[in-house]
Amino acid sequence: MNAPLRPDPLPATAPDWGLDDIVRGLHAAREQWRLAHDRKLETSGREFPSRSALHDIIERLCSALFPMRLGPVDLRQGCSEDFYVGHTLDVALRSLLEQVRLELRHVSRHVSRQNPVDPQQLEERAVDIVRRFAAQLPDIRVLLDTDVEAAYRGDPAAHSVDEIVLCYPGTLAIIHHRLAHTLYTLGVPLLARIVAELAHSTTGIDIHPGARIGKSFFIDHGTGVVIGETAVIGERVRLYQAVTLGAKRFTVSADGTLEKGAPRHPIVEDDVVVYAGATILGRVTIGRGSSIGGNVWLTHSVSAGSVVTQAFARNEMMENGGGI
Amino acid sequence: MNAPLRPDPLPATAPDWGLDDIVRGLHAAREQWRLAHDRKLETSGREFPSRSALHDIIERLCSALFPMRLGPVDLRQGCSEDFYVGHTLDVALRSLLEQVRLELRHVSRHVSRQNPVDPQQLEERAVDIVRRFAAQLPDIRVLLDTDVEAAYRGDPAAHSVDEIVLCYPGTLAIIHHRLAHTLYTLGVPLLARIVAELAHSTTGIDIHPGARIGKSFFIDHGTGVVIGETAVIGERVRLYQAVTLGAKRFTVSADGTLEKGAPRHPIVEDDVVVYAGATILGRVTIGRGSSIGGNVWLTHSVSAGSVVTQAFARNEMMENGGGI
Amino acid sequence: MNAPLRPDPLPATAPDWGLDDIVRGLHAAREQWRLAHDRKLETSGREFPSRSALHDIIERLCSALFPMRLGPVDLRQGCSEDFYVGHTLDVALRSLLEQVRLELRHVSRHVSRQNPVDPQQLEERAVDIVRRFAAQLPDIRVLLDTDVEAAYRGDPAAHSVDEIVLCYPGTLAIIHHRLAHTLYTLGVPLLARIVAELAHSTTGIDIHPGARIGKSFFIDHGTGVVIGETAVIGERVRLYQAVTLGAKRFTVSADGTLEKGAPRHPIVEDDVVVYAGATILGRVTIGRGSSIGGNVWLTHSVSAGSVVTQAFARNEMMENGGGI
Amino acid sequence: MNAPLRPDPLPATAPDWGLDDIVRGLHAAREQWRLAHDRKLETSGREFPSRSALHDIIERLCSALFPMRLGPVDLRQGCSEDFYVGHTLDVALRSLLEQVRLELRHVSRHVSRQNPVDPQQLEERAVDIVRRFAAQLPDIRVLLDTDVEAAYRGDPAAHSVDEIVLCYPGTLAIIHHRLAHTLYTLGVPLLARIVAELAHSTTGIDIHPGARIGKSFFIDHGTGVVIGETAVIGERVRLYQAVTLGAKRFTVSADGTLEKGAPRHPIVEDDVVVYAGATILGRVTIGRGSSIGGNVWLTHSVSAGSVVTQAFARNEMMENGGGI
Amino acid sequence: MNAPLRPDPLPATAPDWGLDDIVRGLHAAREQWRLAHDRKLETSGREFPSRSALHDIIERLCSALFPMRLGPVDLRQGCSEDFYVGHTLDVALRSLLEQVRLELRHVSRHVSRQNPVDPQQLEERAVDIVRRFAAQLPDIRVLLDTDVEAAYRGDPAAHSVDEIVLCYPGTLAIIHHRLAHTLYTLGVPLLARIVAELAHSTTGIDIHPGARIGKSFFIDHGTGVVIGETAVIGERVRLYQAVTLGAKRFTVSADGTLEKGAPRHPIVEDDVVVYAGATILGRVTIGRGSSIGGNVWLTHSVSAGSVVTQAFARNEMMENGGGI
Amino acid sequence: MNAPLRPDPLPATAPDWGLDDIVRGLHAAREQWRLAHDRKLETSGREFPSRSALHDIIERLCSALFPMRLGPVDLRQGCSEDFYVGHTLDVALRSLLEQVRLELRHVSRHVSRQNPVDPQQLEERAVDIVRRFAAQLPDIRVLLDTDVEAAYRGDPAAHSVDEIVLCYPGTLAIIHHRLAHTLYTLGVPLLARIVAELAHSTTGIDIHPGARIGKSFFIDHGTGVVIGETAVIGERVRLYQAVTLGAKRFTVSADGTLEKGAPRHPIVEDDVVVYAGATILGRVTIGRGSSIGGNVWLTHSVSAGSVVTQAFARNEMMENGGGI
């Protein structure tokens, strides 16, 4: 297909990139890195989970969760639907087991190197994680159904619940999140993070897998939404695009490293709506039923039923002013 | 390629996920959903349009609209160009017909269930929709050429019109929009929405297919742009990243449902420029030739020739203040 | 797989889209465009670089730069690692040479049409560009290692440097940028731009390949970041999502065209942090060690060590105000 | 990957093949053919079964028949095995239904054109054929197990029954034949023939789907074996490569056409062995337990227990004779 | 999919194949070969035509020759059929041009090394060959139609002409041969040979592209047929499986090399039938209307209307003789 | 692409194949087989080597053995050639190791079940086999070069040695054989057999991997050639199509099983030629320099320099005899 269309008559010397030198240069750069990070020669192949493997796994899980809407075009309900779901889960879980192993092994070798895990224990833990994950899938489906209904009720442009599952980036993000969060709580945060980034890349919605989100959650449009690791979100919450539930400036310890793990993102109670572009930072609480206006910048708690808007939004806009 | 590299010597028992239980659990969850939504058993296969099929269709249409720039690498102008365009359209339209059928059938079964459409009528309508769509393609191409020229005139970094077609996410978004809007006006809003989401996912630009946009339209950078369903945009309008042309809070009827369909997004007249991050909400009118500054929050109409900027942008910034 | 499941019993007439007319209409639209842009018949095939070819090339380069983390799953360190790197580079550079040729030829024919380049000279230049590009790869790898370390130090949620390479969209963006910037400085700006757009589409981070960025650079979250063509960024700079380093309104010459190429984007000195949503416009300088708060809108220079926040962020928020 | 490596500096005129003329010439040739065969314009797409679709279907059926040996590498026995079998059959049978429809429709339009079948009846017949086919699969598996055991007992080089299923072309041929013969008896001879040719192409063994073959059948090596449409083969028969069970010269009717359908191939009774290269022609009977020697040419019946060899095989070979 | 299912707990050392030594050993073997054959370093990439490229080209040509039967499933007759044919030919011929170039260049460098062809002349010749080839396609289609009809008339098992095109290996072989023979006569024998081997591999029918074959040719079953380079076959000839039209022992010159190019295979006149397994060797003539029986070994000419059978076929078979 | 073209208006009931019953039936058939063969439940996944994996491995080995002729189109000689060879071998050997493991494990479990191999020993043996195999590759290449030269000298139609490598099925067969034979002698006969069948399927040439074949071996045309497990072939031997070097009737032991392993195929000494269709059976010796004529049937030894032809070939052919 890529056949060139013109003659190449001149006796050209073929390009010589000095490939040997470049390969040596890259080799040296890798050595330098490995020395700096105290990595010894890895004789056993790449040890990291694979983004593309997780992409496949999530796609299969989506098909198994919503077989008639995200599964293959020609599936029928009835007995063949269960054959499909069973076989698809079988393949997905088997492949997930391998990824779980890779993360556990990686942690064992590089992170807790002083105290490596016994291989047999590691394997048992991997199997246990996948088994627990699998067992939660029916509940995850029920939870996702509440999200789909919330989106249907929340968007006047939606024609049917089916459209929500097929088209809405917010749906894709919450499916990924509920799977990623389960992985996170089961002890494979790197897998969880990769799953979250898959959704981030496709939808522009960046939810850390650590965030805890109640049922009937809906994000409209969604591009630019960021939800931090320790955020806690209640039931029936609705967010619009570019909303940030973030941390304030990190606490730096005396030794210059960042303090990790402490609660540092907002708590958003039930029935809150946050409009586009609003930024809520720090471990503050947004009381239930509150409404946070577009572009609002909020770094303290507000009580239940609050309606927060930008001060200047109503009265400080200057028109016909000079050039920006 | 994925061959494991180490022995697996231990007589391990194979993982048993309790697959039968999970399949039953998922089956029950689906049943519950179908009951809740009054769906009867579908014995005839999945009925929804397919995102991946539409992805293919749009790719082919892009190739047919711009054969020398988005078509295959080795295409030549002249008679083989028309063979290519004709064949590519033939495949794309045939495949589109199937997707149109799926949407019409879905609507007939689930949305207007009381009043199902006669299959023959449905088929005739599907064919008619595709025929009308196809007939508009030359005009769409002419319109897109004005958009490409607008981008070239509007971006000092652009070296050639060809670069605009090949590289600019705004170009991708407007091609998708003009195709999606045509589908929307022809009565297949679900297909239109899927096409819009394809562009949203790739470019971060979220234009509802209902939006009416005049010629010579240009979006620069684009990530985070949201344009609502009833927005009306004139000719030679230019938008930057993260601009929202949205609705204000929705009107909720007495019965608690959202009011649908009413005009609720801005009208932007000819020759308006809206800078990055500006938010314009509600059925307001931005008079022709106006310039809306970056991050401006605007919820009322402005007359022709207005220049709107943020009040504080010039004089209220505090420097060396305390921590955020 | 797509077999229809129902009979198709009616003797329907097959759809006739009037394909001949549409092909003629599109042909006419293309002719009109070519006339308007003074393009003569191209008898030699498509002349533009290919986005999908560049996607492949960049993927291979990523694998060659980080073979154990972005390369194939079953690679081992040691001698086979160098075989892999050498072969992968060989394929990537060869394919890049073809794309470089396409850009140079395109420029020669359409942009500097008065003064076309001699084919042999063009070929020599293409080979020279690829050779120079290849020679810089080891240095690029060293530079990227500083970026990865900066991310690790800058994000309290990061568990290991490996996680940074595998999961962080900011890492993907800076790898693409450092490769794109090298292409830009070597004289193939169109290729550079396509590479930048590949990252933009995946990460929502839009860095113009012309931007100059020092070592240890880190973008967290990233969606909505825009960095302009003439921006200059020092070492150890950290940006959050939705930060814009943009130009102010363009200068329009007397003849109505935009002035091109002049420095028009910010200079950000070493050790600066810019928080989410901040917008910095024009050729201003952010002094070293400064901290620019979230959502700040800044169009003038600030001296070293400045801490800039939104005035209203602390004291002007109105709560329980009326509807937005 | 196919990037050319040399410059193409000469301003060559692009090749012009006179494509319009060739397309017209081919169009005329097709018209001539359609006229000669009284085909009217087909406005409804290609109507023939598809070789590649049948290839897929047979592959799936093989996997469903022998899941642990011809199915996917990572299948496990137990409940996931049945999920796999159920889902694989579901896909295969659905796809087979479409192919059955295509054959029935083709026959209805072109072969029995005077008496076209009602579409609804045609559909019912198609479904009925697939249902009957599906119901026979367990029996076919049992029959194939006897063939595998026969091969194991018959070949001193075989190490295990598993090797027979994985490696022996004779096994591939008999699996295809037993499926093809079932299709043949159910009334879709064209599908049956395509399935037979798939095996012929891979193994060089050409068994007409009409042939009736008893259990425990074994063909060793196999290349060049030809078994005709009306051949009847008993139980525990063994054939070697290049054996022909063919027809004698066809009877030509007065009108010059060949007489069709009459029994014209051999009957081979139980426990017969036919060695390599033997040719048995016409409706003759090879009595049970007979042994037909290599290269024998046989056109009459032989009684049970016969041992037939070439006369010259033992005593008429000339050595050191002249040049051939 | 290939995830291993068991733990790999033992700290195994990774296999070390001594890859460096093997690569050096293979390098030395290649050097030795290149020295022995006086090949200098090829700095310009592989120079041979590609079997897989030719496979693609032939598949496209088959689709263009028989669009409704070998083309895509959903093609319709009428205007879209010609778009398809035109575009398919465009791609196929372009790709063929590249392969023709590769053969001509290879011959110029290695075979007629003393007298290398000027690159521009070579290009002109390549274009000329493809143009002539393309121009003959309509005639080839007409010729192939006669072959299809001959098969239909000659096989009592055939239900329709369509079945012949779809299922018969003899049809596949003759389509390949008529294309290969055209390439052979146009001066690209290596391409022709590769095309012939593609058919040989699929059908077991081995026709040298040099053989001249008249219209209405039919090979039944076909496995094992061999037709030599200088064979000449008239019209309406019918062959069965395992027929050889070969050369007698080659003439060896005084210098020990084989004499090339001289006519050394049979001439088979019009209306001849050759039954399965017959071997005809040397430049003999089989007179028109003759019938050559199965397994006959023939090394001299026979006059028109001859009926040749094996002497022993009727009366020398020994039954119940000893063991072979 | 497979979009149906007609409406499907009738409210058909979807086909119901009784899938549950069929799955149960197949399950029962498998159980029956497993009981009959004393297989216990395999909880650890499929244990057999994979034909498609071996296909890949052999393709990579061919590319590594002949990089400039069977490798990728755009490879260059020089340093990039060795990178390619090294990387290709690395992937191929790694994948081969997995297949070797599968065979050893299969043997350990099913064949020598009484005496299972210790897993660690098994792994060591697998690695050892691949290491020895790899070490022989340079010698195999040298040997294959003699075969290629023999083909060039032996076929008057060959234009260049390159053509032999690219086109000749005999070359493909001998490359596969020399690799398969090495595997066979190293103790993985099942892998060896699968490799042999890959060549058999493509070329119609069936060489048992146990056969020992000297250098400079050439098979012309080849379809139908069969060479048995214990055959021994000297140097510079030439065979034509349909030659059999087979066993006579097998010796059956008192217990009814076939005797295995004993030498039972011919010894063919140096410089022998065997013409098409000749059959040589049993442990006979064909003395060096002999010539065995076409279709000869030979079951006893002949001394050096013999010329054997069919008795009737010269004088017993009957012409114009009755019908066959």
TrEMBL record, chains A, B, C, D, E, F:
Keywords: Acyltransferase, Amino-acid biosynthesis, Transferase
EC numbers, comma separated: 2.3.1.30
Coiled coil: none
Molecular function per GO: serine O-acetyltransferase activity
InterPro entries assigned to the protein according to its UniProt record, in alphabetical order: Hexapep, LbH_SAT, Ser_AcTrfase_N_sf, Serine_acetyltransferase, Trimer_LpxA-like_sf
Catalytic reaction annotation: L-serine + acetyl-CoA = O-acetyl-L-serine + CoA
Pfam families given in the database record: Hexapep (PF00132)
TM stretches of this protein: none
CDD domains, per database record: LbH_SAT
Signal peptide segment: none
Key word Acyltransferase present: yes
GO annotation (BP), single: amino acid biosynthetic process
Family: Belongs to the transferase hexapeptide repeat family.
PANTHER family named among the record's database cross-references: SERINE ACETYLTRANSFERASE
Protein's name according to its UniProt entry: serine O-acetyltransferase
Annotated source species: Rhodocyclus tenuis (Rhodospirillum tenue)
